[in-house]
């Protein structure tokens, strides 16, 4: 395994969050591939029960077990785990109370589901606890089983509460195994080896949620990581042209002459068609110019968070397995993995 300097040397748990619709799960999957490159072993964990990892990798629904799902660029393995709160509860009862059989009986009665519904903080402790265990786990040789763990976490709006498990569980238990377990999980989440990355689009609402989420993490003494700006598109024209178009100064008549010059004006009817097409294209250029100006403004806003930023391209053919590898290479090229 070759050495490689990255922005996140020493980080072992990468938590990925983002507003719904920003491509959070896709970015988490691409980050896992990037981190696993060159012979590393990475675990990709999801906790929301959506089977998003299976969908992104075009796989059948994942069971509650760690399973190899992909080979990274240059070698290396990506494993996946879809955490099920009910199964995590049974493991918890077995680990701390030796009550797995009783736990199965409680499951049949619906008590486990009832408990995690009335006490959502307990549910978060269970699913983050499974992730924390994977981060800490060592093999028989004493080495870490995984070089890194990527957690596809809940959306930005509740990420601080989700990770701040000690305060969330305080009302459930002040002593005993639950409290001790929560403290252990909190130790991993607040560790210098953990970073929370944000996925956003260059749009006002996702950008604002990103900034709000970063502020909440800092207030909770958790460590923000990088900002992944997803689905970016390069400008189609020079800045001077875009600035003119945004102000309504783009010359449709000149564009019509250009269209005629390439053969759209062989007759009077073709000339009218060229002028009509020029007007439509001028409107499109103006829309593109306004969009580009908005994106420049949102980039400046994100720069105010003073965190590393990485731009991932909009995939013309949509997100498939080849697209995931393309995003992984973009992540590596920018030094994020």
From TrEMBL:
**Where does the ArsA/GET3 Anion-transporting ATPase-like domain lie?**
13-170
Which stretches are transmembrane?
Answer: none
Q: Which GO terms describe its molecular function?
A: ATP binding; ATP hydrolysis activity
Q: Which Gene3D superfamilies match?
A: P-loop containing nucleotide triphosphate hydrolases
SUPFAM superfamilies recorded for this chain? P-loop containing nucleoside triphosphate hydrolases
Superkingdom assignment: Bacteria
Protein name, per record: Anion-transporting ATPase
Q: Which organism is it from?
A: Sinosporangium album
């Amino acid at each position: 395994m070759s050495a490689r300097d990255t922005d996140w040397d020493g980080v072992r748990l990468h938590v990925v969050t983002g507003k719904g619709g920003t491509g959070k799960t896709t970015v988490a999957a691409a980050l896992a591939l990037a981190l696993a490159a060159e012979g590393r072993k990475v675990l990709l964990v999801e906790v929301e029960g959506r089977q998003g990892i299976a969908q992104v990798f075009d796989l059948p629904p994942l069971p509650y077990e760690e399973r190899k799902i992909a080979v990274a660029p240059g070698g290396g393995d990506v494993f996946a785990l879809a955490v099920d709160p009910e199964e995590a509860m049974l493991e918890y009862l077995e680990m701390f109370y030796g009550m797995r059989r009783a736990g199965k009986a409680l499951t049949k009665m619906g008590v486990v589901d009832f408990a995690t519904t009335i006490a959502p903080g307990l549910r978060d402790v269970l699913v983050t606890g499974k992730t924390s265990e994977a981060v800490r786990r060592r093999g028989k040789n004493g080495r870490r089983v995984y070089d890194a763990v990527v957690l596809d976490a809940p959306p930005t709006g509740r990420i601080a509460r989700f990770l701040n498990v000690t305060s969330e569980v305080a009302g459930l238990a002040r002593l005993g195994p639950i409290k001790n377990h929560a403290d252990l999980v909190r130790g991993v989440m607040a560790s210098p080896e953990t970073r929370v990355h944000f996925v956003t689009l260059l749009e006002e609402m996702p950008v604002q949620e990103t900034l709000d989420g970063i502020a909440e993490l800092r207030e909770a003494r958790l460590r923000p990581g990088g900002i992944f700006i997803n689905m970016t598109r390069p400008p189609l024209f020079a800045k001077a042209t875009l600035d003119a178009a945004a102000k309504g100064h783009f010359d449709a008549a000149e564009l019509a002459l250009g269209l005629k010059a390439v053969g759209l004006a062989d007759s009077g009817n073709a000339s009218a068609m060229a002028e009509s097409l020029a007007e439509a294209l001028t409107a499109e250029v103006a829309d593109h110019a306004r969009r580009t100006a908005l994106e420049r403004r949102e980039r400046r806003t994100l720069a105010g968070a003073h965190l590393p930023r990485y731009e991932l391209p909009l995939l013309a053919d949509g997100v498939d397995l080849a697209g995931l590898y393309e995003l992984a290479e973009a992540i590596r090229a920018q030094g994020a993995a």
